[in-house]
Design brief:
This protein is mainly α. It has 19 helices and no strands. The longest helix has 30 residues, at 200-229.
Length: 434
């Protein structure tokens, strides 16, 4: 029963995060917000998520993922109720509180789910991204329809009720037993900083999720405003954002089914590159059809990124001895960083130069980041060739000094063995690191 409840929680959290997208133009009009203020309202949860993700992972590793997840779900219910209040101050406070809850749930909840699997880095962990992405895509449609029929507060009131029910249901779920060897893993931030940069799965997962956050943030900020100028209502905008739900579900489910064959550094990197490039048409044309096409086109690579990043990183973390909570917190932090910074920069560019160049805020860094990952991956393959031990050819000079005929035979054999074995060990090490 644990897995369905956690998947429902991820769905509700993601739907709440994106439900504000079709409401943003009406909120902007109600409170007289500028594009930069719109971006801040949109980015506020991401800012809180950025601040809390890694500490939440450390707490989950030390206090238990179950306890932290239940508390965060209760906080989500409170934050949603605050966003329903007809006050900009309470709306912003609720958005920040929701961001804290969202960051904790997405860290401790995923760690709880990971602990329920028998093996580290199980590709089944990618299914949490499927649930969340369906919520992320369905949220605008549900939020837009509810707002059109029952007012701006109604989507948040519904979330408050659902989160309260989920918090109560999760309290009845037992904690998962510790996986063999998990108690010996590193749980300190210092260990994370020391070990994570040397793990390709962790670095790649964090980088492509940062790209995904940036692309999502820019789309959520700019596309609703441009569709509104094209005559779309809040409900129509929500439906446009939800049109890609079917594509996302199919792609994410296919990636989960492929398992470890799809969960690779190469697939994650190429998906990040494709995701960045998918925004280019919006930078070249602002037609409504182009904008909707960009929403759909960006869905497939975003599904791949979200589905493979977590199992890829947790598998790599298990090999290095890092705890799941820390690594998941790192991934969520980088995702939130992209989600926060990109909309703020895009909003500023939009005010000065218009929407078209604002899309490049996500395109250019994303492409450069993906190319860096590809180059980083190819680098280690070439580097082991250089340690080919230039010292070993020098060793034969040593046997040239013996004076008696008896010693060369006795000493040359060990010397030859000594000089022959190190290259083999080093080549084996090079093969392991490659």
């Amino acid at each position: 029963m644990l897995a369905p409840l956690l998947h429902a929680l991820f769905f509700v959290a993601a739907a709440t995060q994106s439900a504000i997208v079709p409401l943003l133009p009406r909120l902007s009009h109600t409170y007289g917000l500028s594009p930069s203020a719109d971006a801040l309202l949109l980015a506020a949860p991401g800012l809180a998520t950025l601040a809390i993700s890694i500490p939440a992972g450390a707490l989950a590793d030390r206090l238990g993922a179950r306890r932290i997840t239940i508390a965060a779900t209760a906080l989500m219910a409170t934050a949603a109720a605050a966003q329903a209040a007809p006050s900009y101050v309470l709306l912003m406070a609720g958005r920040l509180a929701f961001g804290l809850a969202f960051g904790i749930v997405w860290t401790s909840g995923v760690a709880w789910m990971s602990g329920s699997h028998s093996d580290s880095g199980s590709p089944r962990l990618g299914a949490v991204a499927t649930s969340a992405a369906v919520g992320m895509v369905a949220g605008p449609a549900i939020g837009g329809v509810l707002a059109d029929r029952f007012g701006l507060s109604s989507p948040f009131l519904v979330v408050a009720v659902l989160a309260g029910v989920l918090a109560s249901a999760l309290k009845w779920q037992p904690d998962t037993p510790s996986r063999a060897g998990s108690d010996a893993r590193e749980t300190s931030l210092r260990s994370l900083a020391r070990l994570a940069p040397n793990q390709p799965g962790v670095v790649t997962g964090a980088a492509v999720l940062a790209i995904s956050g940036a692309v999502s943030g820019v789309i959520q900020l700019l596309v609703p405003l441009e569709l509104r100028h094209a005559g779309f209502s809040a409900g129509a905008t929500g439906v446009a954002f939800s049109a890609a739900a079917g594509v996302y579900i199919v792609v994410s489910a296919l990636v989960v089914k492929l398992g470890r064959r799809a969960t690779t550094v190469v697939s994650a990197t190429l998906a990040g590159l494709t995701l960045s490039l998918s925004l280019l048409p919006a930078a070249l044309s602002s037609g409504a059809a182009i904008l909707v096409a960009v929403l759909v086109a960006s869905t497939a690579p975003r599904a791949v990124v979200s589905t493979v990043a977590y199992p890829l990183a947790t598998d790599s973390a298990a090999r290095s001895g890092l705890a799941d909570g820390l690594v998941i917190g790192l991934l969520n932090g980088t995702w939130a960083g992209g989600l926060v910074l990109a909309p703020l920069l895009a909003g500023a560019v939009d005010q000065v130069a218009g929407a078209a160049p604002a899309y490049l805020v996500a395109v250019v860094p994303g492409v450069l980041g993906a190319l860096w990952l590809l180059r980083r991956r190819s680098g280690p393959k070439d580097s082991p060739a250089t340690p080919a031990t230039p010292t070993t050819p020098i060793a034969p000079a040593t046997p040239a000094t013996p004076a008696t005929p008896a010693t060369p035979r006795a000493s040359s054999t060990p010397a030859t063995a000594a000089t022959a074995k190190p290259p083999t060990a080093e080549h084996e090490l090079a093969g392991a690191t490659a």
